[in-house]
Amino acid sequence: MNSVFEVQKTIREILLKILDNHSLEQLNKIPEGFSNNLIWNIAHCIAAQQSLVYKLSELPSKVSEDFIARYSKGTKPEGYVSQSEVDEIRIMLSETLHQVQKDYADKIFVDYREYTTSMGFTLRNVEDAISFNNYHEGTHTGIIMSIRKFV
């Protein structure tokens, strides 16, 4: 699993650079032809990781339920995200990465509720979820790279 966590670390570093290199206005802008923005995609990666890894393992998530509800699949940006919210998201990007690594090493993931993703891939255990999460975050990183050309 070390290489899987290294991939996620690399993705999260890319997302942190996006936060560092774009203004609040750019992070919030929804370009024509898109249904969301840079900050929604970044926050969505956190919410999805928490749902796929913790919630399906029947464990409490490391971010608020309100955050997950706001950025989960099927949602869209609801108003302007403030600088303080961006700062919280920045912290969550790092903290949720380190926490899942620690929790995995501590073997807290015992149960897992099988889940079939919208891509048709069935997650049967936490290892599947952590691996699939990298694919998911990679997909959203690609979307982010497209959006940033228009902001």
Describe the structure in your own words.
The structure is a single chain. By secondary structure, the protein is mostly helical. It has a two-stranded antiparallel ribbon. Helix 1 runs parallel beside helix 6 and helix 3 crosses helix 4. The radius of gyration is 15 Å and the shape is globular. It starts with a helix and ends with a helix. The model has no long low-confidence stretch (mean pLDDT 97).
Annotation keywords:
151 residues; mainly alpha; two-stranded antiparallel sheet; 6 helices; 3% strand
Protein topology:
Layout lengths: L1 H19 L3 H5 L9 H17 L10 H7 L11 H23 L9 E2 L5 E2 L2 H23 L3
Antiparallel strand pairs: 1-2
Helix pairs in contact: 1-5, 1-6, 3-4, 3-5, 3-6
Quick summary of this structure?
By secondary structure, the chain is mainly α.
Percent strand equals under 5%
**Spatial strand order of the main sheet:** 1-2
Query: What does the radius of gyration come to?
Result: 15 Å
Order of helices and strands: HHHHHEEH
As a percent range, the share of helical residues equals 55-70%
What's the tally of helices? 6
As residue ranges, the low-confidence spans are none
Class by alpha and beta content: mainly alpha
End-to-end separation: 36 Å
* Overall pLDDT score: 97
Taken from the alpha-carbon principal axes, the silhouette is globular
Number of separate strands: 2
Major β-sheet, in short? 2 strands, antiparallel
